[in-house]
Design goal:
Shape: globular
CATH architecture of the largest domain: Alpha-Beta Complex
Strand order of the largest sheet: 1-2-3-5-4
Structural class: alpha+beta
CATH class of the largest domain: Alpha Beta
Number of strands: 9
Number of helices: 11
Order of helices and strands: HEEEHEHEHHHHEEEEHHHH
CATH topology of the largest domain: Aminoglycoside 3'-phosphotransferase, Chain: A, domain 2
């Protein structure tokens, strides 16, 4: 990708961005080019270069309908705070507020590595390496949950007390913002979660969207995690909510969200019960009522899927594979009801 000061790219104003880089990005050499790497389902991700150095720029999706799910300032703050910690992240470089591009955006270092998004990519690995990658991810999640928020300047990053009840209410509010149809199981799942919502099992930094394709892996060793990415939903909260969502992403019901090609749903990965056991061993946490946390994960995944589907219907997504997303919310909500009833 050759730097071209006149080149345009959907969602970015390169002339304005060039001036920002000149003022805020060390070692910038004066020209700029960008290409969309991944986008439309979550924040838009671009690889940006001046021909000598590569960076990654992230901004909210076009026409984002769920503002709290695309919080760039939170993402930049947590990545900055975790630098040099036991959790691998891309080094934070610069943050731009909405005054420049109309939306906030972040710039971080470009981390060379592999992102496994599809079953085909995953299945090119041996069973041993697939299992090793899955366990490395769970171990990284446990290490994240072991970080003392105070020690990295994140004591005020969220209100831990009442986190679970707020999640149930907030994601139902998001549903009402984005829903394109009525879904009785989603309403029933919300009611059930609200009825049995427990007190928090503990307090930690939570990622909020932890799955295999939000990790950059070493190209020659998928068990080596070079960076965890996509931190826009991070906060302080109950660590088991992170685990529950991670396990929900393993359900084939999630596959339509990624064009029926979600690596996280592969049956060659260790079973969710094995991953939960590994997390319990690594973290030392009692898993308690994991059924509730799994049901909450399904609830959140269903609302996220509906939000993507809504943007697709409005013509606001970029890239391929969005035609299938609308199939996901109903089976995800149904799976959440089964989890809540202990029928997993």
């Amino acid at each position: 990708m050759k730097a071209d000061p006149g080149a345009g790219v959907d969602g970015l104003d390169l002339p304005l961005l060039k001036r920002f880089f000149a003022d805020h990005v060390p070692d910038f050499r004066g020209e700029l080019a960008a290409e969309l790497v991944h986008g439309g389902r979550s924040n838009l991700t671009y690889k940006v270069t001046d021909g000598h150095t590569d960076w990654v720029l992230r901004r909210p999706p076009l026409g984002g309908l769920t503002p709290s799910a695309h919080d760039m300032a939170r993402e930049y703050r947590v990545v900055s705070a975790l630098a040099g910690n036991a959790v691998p992240v891309a080094r934070a470089v610069a943050f731009g507020d909405a005054a420049l591009l109309g939306v906030p955006f972040s710039v971080v270092e470009y981390v060379e590595g592999t992102v496994i998004r599809t079953p085909e990519q995953l299945h090119s690995l041996s069973d041993e390496r697939i299992a090793g990658c899955a366990y490395a991810l769970v171990d990284t999640l446990a290490r994240l949950h072991a970080v003392d928020p105070d020690s990295v300047g994140l004591a005020d990053f969220g209100r831990a007390e009442g986190y679970l009840a707020r999640q149930v209410g907030r994601w139902y509010d998001q549903w009402h913002r984005v829903h394109t149809r009525d879904l009785a199981d989603l309403d029933a799942l919300h009611a059930g979660l609200a009825r049995v919502c427990p007190a928090e099992s503990g307090v930690s930094i939570v990622h909020g969207d932890f799955r295999i394709d939000n990790a950059i892996l070493a190209p020659d060793d998928p068990t080596e995690i070079r960076a965890i990415v996509d931190w826009e939903m991070a906060t302080l909260g109950d660590p088991l909510a992170d685990l529950g969502l991670h396990l929900a992403y393993a359900d084939p019901a999630f596959a339509p969200v990624l064009g029926d090609a979600a690596a996280s749903t592969s049956d060659r990965l260790p079973a969710p019960a094995e991953l939960a056991h590994r997390y319990g061993l690594t973290s030392g946490r009692a898993l308690g009522d994991l059924g509730f946390y799994l049901a909450l994960g399904y609830f959140k995944a269903a609302v996220i899927a509906e939000g993507i589907h809504a943007r697709f219907r409005l013509g606001l997504t970029r890239g391929a594979g969005f035609e299938t997303v609308g199939r996901a919310p109903a089976p995800l909500a149904a799976a959440g009801l089964r989890a809540l009833a202990g029928q997993t």
